[in-house]
Amino acid sequence: MASAIITLINRPFAHWSQEKRQLWATVLLAAAFAIYPLLTDDDANIDTIANAMSYATLALGLNIVVGFAGLLDLGYAAFFAIGAYYYGIFTAYQVMPPWSEAWAPLAFLGLVEKINQGGPDLVHFTMSFWLALPTGALVAGFFGVLFGAPTLRLRGDYLAIVTLGFGEIVPILARNMESVTNGAAGLNGVKGPTLPAIKAIGFGGYSFGVDATPYYYVGMGLVALLIFSSIRLRDSRIGRAWMAIREDETAASAMGINLRNFKLLAFAIGASFSGFTGVFFVSKLQVATPEMFNFSVSSMLIVMVVLGGMGSVWGVVLGAGLLQLLQTWILPQTTNVLHDIGHAINSDMLVAADLVQWTQMFFGIIIVVMMLFRRDGLIPATRAQPKLEMEEQHADVKRGGFVNVDRIEKWNPGTGNALEIKDVTVRFGGLVALNKVNLTIPAGGVVAVIGPNGSGKSTLFNAITGLVTAEGSIKFEGMELIGLRPDEVLQKGVARTFQNIRLFPKLTVLENVLIGEHCRLKTLPFGAIFRPPSARAEEQGALRKALDIIGLFGNRLTPRANHTVSGLSYANRRRVEISRALASRPRILLLDEPTAGMNPNETLELAEQIAELNAMGLTILIIEHKLDVVTRLAQSVTVLDHGDVIAQGSADEVQRNEEVLTAYLGRAHRAKIEAQDAAAAKEKANG
Amino acid sequence: MTSGDLFLQQLINGLNLGAMYSLLALGFTLVYGIMELINFSHFNVFMVGCFIALGVLKLMGMDGQAVILTGLPLIGVLLVTFLITMFSSGMIGVGIERLLLRPLRAVTGPAAMILTIGVSYILFNVILIGIGGDTRNFANPLPTVTWNIGGAVLRLRDVLIWGITVILMLGLTYFVQFTKLGKGMRATAQDPEAARMMGVEVDNVVGLSFFIGSALAGASGLIFGLYYNYAKVDMGFSAGLRAFTAAVLGGIGNVPGAMLGGVLIGLIEASSSQLIGQLWADVVIFSILVIVLVFRPAGLLGRQAPNKS
Fold it and tell me: By residue range, what is the domain housing residue B76?
């Protein structure tokens, strides 16, 4: 139904590009909101919309924390309270320390004034609303980091409960710290914003007062600013890093994302959006009390985000609008209708009904219904998947390596050893997973690690990439890797794939590969939001590079660049994972069973592609079970069994090694090799 | 009162609170142990349980402190109230699990937890709209029998609360450790898939853990009523958060841990009210929650770190 209407509206504009349609829809929407106060003289409506705008800004902030970064914050209203009290304390008449000359410099700057209410002289803070907005955001952001820091190591659901506790503590503090916050009575008489007089253009200044219209426009400006910032952040290096963390923390870390910094950044930016709104909200209401910021506010914001769609910028704005509409219009109007019906049919029950009391009941029902039937919200954040043409769907097994390989820069492998692993031991409790393993990978070489299941192969990769703590020494081009975090290891030039594919399932192929480039890009939040030429150029370069890497696999991946990876075939997901690793521009690539689950033709195709990467100068360490792949690729093979290196040498040598035959290939194979040898010896003797 | 008497009195109060929090914490821990789900609806199953008990007592003619019973009638009334309250609360838990959470069992991510927030809201508003938001007097048919220990006062109520709690905990421990269903429960907590393959009916086990957890929440609600002599629609939030803290403190997923954690939180609440004021008790308890989660996420008795990937 809804989609049919959208199609109908879209029809006259079908020849426009999607960007153009979206731009014009946004402009029309903004224009409609801009002229609305001129068309109505009902101040209550304007006030209601201005409140809805406050909630929309809060929901946008929460969406960064919950929707983008996947950190379920149930105490988000705490930051709202911090912004509100920050502005309240610095303008209200309840907090007035005694005057001393030390305040004089601040009085000179216009931040405080000396007043006398018939006693000793007192200090009255007179912070400007326009100064409080950005500084309130900073203060709330600071508390975001402060609250976030101890909770970051926790799993998502624990984070929820801790933030719930924080959300509860902040109103309690506001109630208890009477000397600063005036306790339960709260601060009132908070100053409304003013615009200073500008003589040059003949503007005499303006004070906001109680009329809702100026707040409406400020609120609209805030919503526009935060929508803009959210979208810019989402489509940047920052937003991709957050979504990677949301999808798979371990993989995000292994792909070069500093988990701690980016989680704190999400907390800080989300909190600063909230602090921003707190300043605005309090200036509009002109009071701040502890009850304004309790759990019901936090949970209402969660409802908005859940209703609109977690991670969907326009979705949460819609969610905020719908909830405000529900509270201020739908429920009162329906109540009136029920009353009319009640009077008509003489039903006392209907006459007494008051649906406004049911507001929170509807919140609960909305959450339950959305979680059961539409978890992605009304406007899902994941976009529609473009359909594939027949020839795009069809992929021939292609022999002979990559396509358009000249678009990828070659590597200079250097000389000596790329990776030197010395006496590396990994223990899990009493179990020794790796026991004094020694392994050297020459620069520009291909080394394979084989061994039965549970022999410690993947643990070796985890030790190299910092996912498990190890003893001993792992030197990459002379730099010690042990003790580094996974993201630091990637930064140094060691990239990996995982045995049980760890892509970011809800993100597209292109986004996955772009996340691989994360550690080579530099854009920070400011650059992401305002996109100076340098940030723009960097992003375009990254996009081009990602497409070039995806293009290596020909029409396997390129037509699917904008598909979410969860819908790809197994083999294609392996290819995306290799692309993602290549995007970090590694100097050594660690492949953990890259051909597992591929059919023989696909295996051969990938083996040739790996060989081509090596020919281009990339050093490779590979775990593989398929011996034909190992013999085809590896110059040297290391065999692990129960955490010990039991053999090292060429593929041919280890295949004949007694211990390997017993441990890994089994007795039947050993008998077969022995029979072959005997036959060869016999032939030799005969010949 | 000397400081020794004060300490003793706070010990008695703390043990009462602790009994209440322990029973409530068991529900969090049982469900978390089996499904790795923080069940926010538990907060308000507790509250609804308290109102059910209030209703049952009212039906039996108890209202306010007007009727005082002794002897067999008292035991009978208490037994009936406990049984009906626990059974009804348990069935609410089973209903939530079967109707709402089961369809989400296979869904990864926070969906199920967010859903329980919604369920909690619905339970809250059912009581708010149906009964009202004002404080209700909770009938207390216990005679005022007291013993003086120095300056501290031990009431019959206190002894009764401890007795009931100990009986319920012993029953639960026996059930979990020594019955076939209890074994199935422990197996499911370790590895649901393996348990299913070994013939444990996981659906029943999950339903049962919700029933037991919610029934204990109902008992806890009844104890709240007997201790504080009131019921109010917003009582679930702060008690629930404290009980959750107790479950985390003891090691979430760990049954003896929840009991220990509950008692500790009760004692901490009583003594911090005494030492630094009622106003700050919440701040102290949430600080403990954060400190435990940061420095010892496995809790006092837990072995497994909760942030496995």
Answer: 3-247
